[in-house]
Design a protein that fits this description.
The chain is mostly helical. Helices cover 68% and strands 0% of the residues. It has a domain at 181-221. The chain is elongated, with a radius of gyration of 38 Å.
């Protein structure tokens, strides 16, 4: 560590101690009369503003250099990653669509196989009832055979394709599009438990408050003046 680096570290530590002490002092202040007003005004003029200037002189350049380096790294990272992310998104979408189509086909084939098994069981049960009747069974026994289906003997169909090891597509992401804002507002008005669906647009409300000041009169809202 060079002497300059040591000096900079000592200087930064000294500033840190001063600003901490200053912040603690100001946090405990109140203005109740002319004397206390003068005291706070002096601190603002003679301590807060000078140390603000000193911090900017001491650390402003380093902050700007560090920020520019960080921004440059972020820009290069985003520039390189953007096409990769786009390619990944497209590949995931293609694989996801294929997965869904194949699963749909498998389910349709499974339903067809299950229906075929059900029909086969009904035919076998009807044949058993006829055979029982021909062998002398009474109506109650024949009815019991007809109304007592055997467990379906179905075979679970295998997937229609083999998934590649090491490739996992993210699950589908569902989202909402608001097509009729007024209908949404009416729904929330009737169902207050969903009030959180109508988040206020604070930038616009703040803009109204800044423009209208004391005349601000939006129901359910209050204009707040701060220094």
């Amino acid at each position: 560590m060079t002497m300059q680096t040591l000096h900079e570290a000592d200087s930064t530590l000294a500033i840190e101690k001063r600003v901490t002490t200053l912040a603690e002092r100001v946090a405990a202040l109140t203005i109740v009369d002319q004397e206390s007003y003068n005291y706070v005004a002096l601190i603002l003029r003679d301590e807060i503003k000078p140390i603000e200037t000193e911090i900017e002189k001491e650390l402003g350049a380093a902050k700007d250099i560090t920020y520019r380096a960080w921004k440059d790294a972020c820009d290069r990272y985003n520039r390189f990653m953007a096409p990769v992310a786009q390619a990944k998104k497209l590949a995931n979408r293609l694989i996801g669509e294929w997965d869904e189509a194949q699963e749909h086909a498998r389910q349709e084939a499974q339903r067809a196989a299950d229906e075929e098994a059900r029909k086969r069981e009904e035919e076998e049960r009807l044949a058993a009832a006829i055979a029982a009747e021909e062998a002398g069974a009474n109506k109650r026994e024949v009815k019991a055979i007809l109304e007592s289906p055997a467990p379906l003997q179905t075979v679970k169909l295998a997937p229609t394709y083999e998934k590649m090891q090491g490739v996992r597509t993210p699950p589908a992401i569902w989202s909402c599009r608001v097509d009729d804002k007024l209908s949404l507002v009416k729904f929330v008005a009737k169902n207050p438990r969903w009030l959180h669906l109508l988040e206020p647009v604070m930038p616009q409300l703040n803009g109204l408050a800044r423009t209208q000041k004391e005349l601000f009169a939006v129901p359910g809202c209050t204009a707040i003046k701060q220094r």
